[in-house]
Design a protein that fits this description.
236 residues; mainly alpha; Vanadium-containing Chloroperoxidase, domain 1; 0% strand
Length: 236
């Protein structure tokens, strides 16, 4: 009998460990290149122009109105905060444990925790100051690059969606999971720029890193499942 984490359908998922290693390597390259770019002051004009374009008078007036756009953005950005993400990961972990999906549980915890730690280290190494082009509508204290909300939300929501897709048989449910994850990640990143606490390049770096990190763990999961389905050992 195959383990609870294994479904016949999963052979359609990436079977090669090379995909996982390649995605992780590309994540590091992307973040290093973007970090060097912002450290040299390149791209600052584009960053500034985008931030100013996101606060035209019509939107500012709406944000100042009762229950306006500002509160919507604050609510959306909270979905990428540490508290909400911790609750989501913990809840998902509990569900997977009750269903005895131990492999998926290990991959979810490994991917989300390692990704969050990596983002914190990169922030410390780059040390980019927060933008001061427009007013900050929420408080932010850590370094700016990469956006922790963008990176962590991409890492966690996409990792959860991609790994859960490997144990869900219905095609429409799979597409629903990935669609919701992409929508959340995009909205959270845009909210960080609108609220004035991140440069657009911070968000782009966060999206890129988080997406590649999630794909790496998805590929690793696909490789492990295929090996298990074939009755092969994980190590030579």
């Amino acid at each position: 009998m195959l383990p609870a984490d294994t479904v016949i359908d999963e052979v359609r998922h990436p079977p090669w460990l090379f995909y996982a290693a390649g995605a992780l390597a590309l994540a590091v390259i992307v973040i290093v290149v973007l970090g060097m770019t912002v450290a040299r002051g390149q791209g600052a004009a584009i960053d500034r122009a985008i931030m100013l374009a996101m606060r035209p008078p019509s939107i500012v007036d709406a944000a100042q109105s009762h229950g306006g756009f500002r509160q919507v953005m604050i609510d959306i950005t909270a979905l990428g905060g540490g508290t909400v993400l911790t609750i989501i990961v913990s809840s998902t972990a509990g569900f997977l444990a009750m269903r005895r999906h131990w492999l998926t549980l290990g991959l979810v915890l490994g991917g989300t925790i390692s990704g969050s730690l990596a983002v914190g280290m990169i922030k410390t190494l780059v040390g980019r100051p927060r933008p001061s082009v427009i007013d900050h509508l929420v408080d932010a204290w850590s370094a700016s690059f990469p956006s922790g909300h963008a990176a962590n939300s991409a890492t966690i929501y996409l990792t959860l969606a991609l790994l859960l897709m490997q144990i869900v048989e219905q095609r429409m449910v799979r597409w629903y999971l990935i669609g919701v994850a992409v929508l959340l990640v995009t909205a959270i990143g845009v909210s960080r720029v609108y609220l004035g606490v991140h440069w657009p390049s911070d968000v782009l770096a966060g999206w890129s890193f988080g997406t590649l990190w999630a794909l790496a763990w998805w590929s690793l999961g696909g490789w492990i499942r295929l090996r298990r389905a074939q009755g092969l050992p994980l190590l030579p």
